[in-house]
Amino acid sequence: MSKLQQLYGNFEDWVHSWWPGAKTRITAALGSIGMAAAALQGYVTGLPTVKYISAETLSLLGAGLFTLSYWFSGMGQRVDARAQAL
After folding, report:
1. Alpha-carbon distance 4 to 28, whole Å?
2. Contacts 24+ apart (CB under 8 A), 37-42
3. % the chain with pLDDT above 90
4. For residue 24, what are the contacts with CB-CB under 8 A and spacing of at least 6?
């Protein structure tokens, strides 16, 4: 195992130690809220979509949150696999 892989593994172990399982649900829920806000911003508020924050920005934020959620989803299995390999 290279030094970089070991550092990344240590980082992933550290991140996994925060609320295992809850991070995935929280980031997926926030991503869903952000995507819904992006889709409904102009309809609900009646304001132009670029008045405070653009719909594109909200969509990018939602995509980022879904990416984090995907990363968090298999983290426990990867951490356990590394622990068993030692």
Report:
1. 29
2. 38/62
3. 5
4. 69, 72, 73
Global pTM reads: 0.70
What are the residue ranges spanned by the domains of the chain?
A: 21-80
The residue written with tokens 């593994």 in the block is 9
Residue 84 and residue 25 in contact, taking contact as beta carbons nearer than 8 Å: no
Q: Which amino acid is at 1?
A: M
Instruction: Count Cβ atoms within 10 A of the Cβ of residue 17 and give its class: 0-12 exposed, 13-18 middle, 19 or more buried.
Output: exposed
pLDDT for the residue numbered 23 = 86
Q: Stretch 19-24: mean pLDDT, rounded? A: 84
